[in-house]
Design a protein that fits this description.
Elements (H helix, E strand, L loop, with lengths): L2 H100 L14 H22 L6 H41 L4 H60 L1
Amino acid sequence: MNFESFIYNFLIVFFAMLAFYLFKSFWPKYFEAKGTNQATKEDIGEITEIIENIKSDLLQQNELIKAQLSLTNQHKLDLKSAEREAIFEFNRRVSGWIYALIRFTFSNYSQDNYKELKLTSIEFSKRQYECDLAEAHLALFIDTEEFYELKRDLIVSIIELEGIVSKAIYKVYYCYSRFEIELELEKSDARKQADIRASFYKEEKLIIDAYRKDSIEKYKKVHEFHTQMTRLIKTRLRQLEDFENNLEAE
């Protein structure tokens, strides 16, 4: 073996050992790093899937909360709407009762139809009953001390006004009844009938004049309380409107 062959063999062995060393040292690390990268990718995939699941759950919960909130808000709006209708109904019934009393007049009645006065009294009682129902319904929504006190004063004043009207109706009805009987008893005496008529008209005028005076004085108090109630109702309606606007803006 010459020197060149020796060098050549030596280099082959050297590079073979170097290659073996490199393979032994770096190849496992390569597969280890590759495995680590693969594991990292798998972990990232699992984490991504978890995040997406969480996002989906949160989205579903958010939609559920929105639906529940919408349902709650709608329920509140329905209650406020019911309260508004109760306010309108109460005001309508109270006003109808008051105006039926103050617009009542005896000029529509005569000897021919005076018995219909009983129907008028029944009509007043009906209006009071309707007002009582509307008042009880409104009490489900408004329970402030101011409202109860003002409602009490208003209703009492209207009842007192109705008492004045009803008392006058009773007196005029009785006057007509007596007048009718007296005329029948003296139907053969024209002079006495004339005296009966004159006496009747005088008595009727006294009753009606006293009724007008008393009803006007009492209506002043009714009007005062009714005006206060109207202001209170308007304030409450504005509060309901503000509440609904704020609720819709949420």
